[in-house]
Amino acid sequence: MPYIPHTPEDVRAMLERIGAGAIDDLFDEIPPALRVDALPGVPDALGEMEVARLTAERAAADGNPLNFIGAGAYEHHIPAPVWALVTRGEIYSAYTPYQAEASQGTLQTMYEYQSMIAGLTAMDVSNASLYDGASALAEACLMAVRAHRRSKSARILMPTTVNPAWRQVTRVITHGQGLVIEELPYCTEEGRTIPEALARHAGSDVTALVIQQPNFFGQLEDVDALTRWARANGALVIAAVNPVALAVLQPPGAWGDGGADIACGDAQPFGVPLSSGGPYVGFMACRMEHVRQMPGRIAGRTVDAEGKRGFTLTLQAREQHIRRAKATSNICTNQGLLMSAATIYLALLGPAGLERVARACLARTRDLVDALGKLPGVRAAFEGPRFHEAVLTLDRPVAPVLEALAREGIVGGFDLSRDYPELGHALLACATETRTRADIETYARALGRELSRAAAA
Amino acid sequence: MRKPEPLIFELSRPGRGATAQYPAQEDAEVPAEFRRRQPPPLPEVSELQAVRHYTRLSQLNFGIDTHFYPLGSCTMKYNPRACNSLAMLPGFLGRHPLAPSATGQGVMACLFELQEMLKHVTGMAGVSLTPMAGAQGEFAGVAMIRAYHLARGDQARTEIIVPDAAHGTNPATATMCGMKVREIPTLPDGDVDLAALDAALSPSTAGIMLTNPSTLGVFERRIVEIARKVHAAGGLLYYDGANLNAILGKVRPGDMGFDVIHMNLHKTFSTPHGGGGPGSGAVGVGQRLLPYLPVPVVARDGERYRWLDERDRPDSIGRLSGFMGNTGVLLRAWVYMRILGAAGMRRVAEYSTLNANYLLARLAELGFTPAYPGRRASHEFIVTLKREARELGVTAMDFAKRLLDHGYHAPTTYFPLLVPECLLIEPTESETREELDGFAEALAAIRREAASDAAAVKSAPHTMPVRRLDDVRAARQLDVAWKPAAA
Asked: Does residue A404 share a domain with residue A284?
């Protein structure tokens, strides 16, 4: 019996102690008409060896293509210690630290993580994780509505340069509470939000302005001007940021005059594998004045009965298990394991290593744009500073080109034609420190071949 | 007792680093006006220092791999190592979520099979794997109920009925979805008060959220009648799958009359709890709610798998995550289910129920008070320490802390809220009889100790890395982030 230790003698003795004749008698409070005695459609058991073989075949079939997509999830080197440590049973198989005295490892890691996120974003406080970047942005919008007591409109200004999937998740999650998400246009020449787009909202009741830095196109927004506009118009600022970029970019806490109110994003780039979309790790930080509106777990430093330093879950009166219908969010289980991975990643990289990663991203993306931009029929859609992604336009539809590249083992980018039809045949491509110049040349050659082959045909 | 582990920041020295992890230095820069002026205050430590620090921190934790962890409602069973190593094969791990599905047929085959198996074990018509935790599954469920009523032009249905024993996530979810919460009481025998239900049902009823077996550790015996009443009133039934482990393969929520269910894959299907996640809250629905399932879901066209999105499912409530949910967690659940097979899943319910009823019988023999005497335990049960609190002056919290000294993680304490001084105990099927006996004897020993030396129990724990912590101070003198100046 996989993972069940009972011997026949155990079962006999246990039933006798219970006073039952058979295990089935223990289900005698379930109405008999409801009971099922088989599970058709569920396959029979396999041993670990058979499942391992089947799984290995499937994983191998998915191959190991050369990846040039970012679009919200980024390939980075994962130091070997990260997963060697977080798969230790004491981390992997523990749960939410409800018994603080038997969970100091998890709690201190949470405190260290919160400190690192607060430091990176230059905000006062961080929670101990949300699900992913998209849901973190949704929670940030809900939080802004609670935190901004003078604003009655629940209106959120959302630039269309914000990740389209994050925008959709935000609409889905905030819909029931009546938030109004108003989208802002962007400059199709520069690929960033134009401060003038905000002008028509001046003087009206705006709860918060969302600013993504770098934005979905990889371009750098004029965060100072946008933040100043929000301050001048009584709106809170929600920063959605790439955490690697924060090694070299102004952190949300330093934007404009006085900084953002809430910073959020996805800490997946910190030691969390791409893994077809998850599990990742949403982060959220804010100014101290908003901490009681923050969703999610928070670890705090305190002392024990002997005055010794220790850590415990704190401000729990915000949470669903205490406040129930009046909680800041319904979130309970979050992304603890990935929070630990991100903490260990940041401890290993430190400020110097993280800056090197960020600069390597800048350099490889510059190389990628240079190499692809030289091909006939390919050009960079936007000028201006960018981080580790760029929009490239082709002289023909993108999807068939990407399919052809995939057949050669190259995942060439994210097709933007559905989310941004106004950009024409556009794709979003990314290169981080994991791509070498040789990888980029391989991509450029394959794309060149494909474009010339298709042109000849 | 070991010396306390410093903060990683306290180990930091300027200029130190795990340099093997650094990429080569590049000269690329961002323009000056965007540039960060102060480097982020991250620690500077060697690779060995980091490895030793987080290894030592891990050793301060209890986990399933190290201790019996009978945390009620959390299903802390063995997390098979195979699930982790197979989900982390390179072909799965390195795959970008937006890579073409041609490069993801292997992972999508696993996800499709997982959807199918979950449909069959719950008796539902369709499953979406995207919710990233139980609470997000609840959100998806209530949002679907809302969408269903609105699509019928039934805009008055704005109330969700929740029993007082429910998890806090249930009412919190209803609020997040813009619903009003209507709480109904539970009878002394643990079943829902049907008279109160009748009184609560109205043309405003959108639905009811139930956990069955409930958080009281008993099966709701009149579930068919409840389903009939709620449906007759025009409402739908939501199944909180937190306790699915107790009935896996024995009775299916779809057959009980539920319209929508979330499953906590990190409970019933044994994916790791990770110190507080990641979870996975896959949702299943009956025919009525099928069009509203969150996207994406995996479909099979002949021999090929593809993602269905908003274009295929225009009535979907939409996306809940940036991509397709916690795929790595889903792979772990798939491995677990393939190793268990149909018979193994039924054994999960059988042996978890056997262990719970055995431990309940042992504790009752030892003189502890079951909260619902005369009822069968499901895979968990409640003991109330009301009498011990009154006669000996030691609370459920004191028992919980002293259990840590005996080498057992404490059960869930003070939940559900309606049972005073309660321990909610869930042993799971993967524990041996000896482990259960040891736990029962530890509880009895603590009670004996309380009678002779109550102070020793009230000041527990004595052998943990820290003594009892000052939660009030933690909240009043808030310190939630290390600051360079404060070091």
From this structure: no
Rounded CA gap, A370 and A372, in Å?
6
Q: What is the mean pLDDT of residues A393-409?
A: 96
pTM of the model: 0.98
Q: Of A297, A322, A344, which residue constitutes the final position of a domain?
A: A344
Provide the number of structural domains found in chain B.
3
**Structure letter (DSSP) for residue B6:** P
**Residue in chain A nearest B465 by alpha carbon:** A101
Tell me if B481 is assigned to some domain. no
Using alpha carbons, select from A160, A295, A147, A122 the residue that is nearest to residue A208: A147
- Of A292, A325, A344, the domain-final residue: A344
Write down the mean pLDDT value for chain B. Answer: 97
CA A159, CA B385: separation in Å to the nearest integer? 56
Tokens representing residue B440 in the block: 């029962």
Range of the domain at A375: 66-75+350-456
In this complex, which of A94, A99, A338 lies closest to B400 when CB atoms are compared? Answer: A99
With contact defined as beta carbons under 8 Å apart, do B378 and B251 qualify? no
B7 vs A111: CB contact, 8 Å cut-off? Answer: yes
**Interfacial A residues in 358-387 facing B (CB < 8 Å):** 359-360, 362-363, 366, 385, 387
Total domains in chain A come to 2
What ipTM was predicted for this assembly?
Answer: 0.98
Average pLDDT, chain A: 96
- At B438-460, the pLDDT tens digits run 999 999 999 999 999 999 999 99
Element (H, E) at B198: helix B194-200
User: Among candidates B380, B406, B64, which has minimal Cα distance to B246?
Assistant: B380
pLDDT in tens, B137-172: 999 999 999 999 999 999 999 999 999 999 999 999
How buried is B224 (Cβ within 10 angstroms: 0-12 exposed, 13-18 middle, 19+ buried)? middle
Pick the residue from chain B with its C-alpha nearest to A136: B321
- Do A365 and A321 sit in the same domain of this protein? no
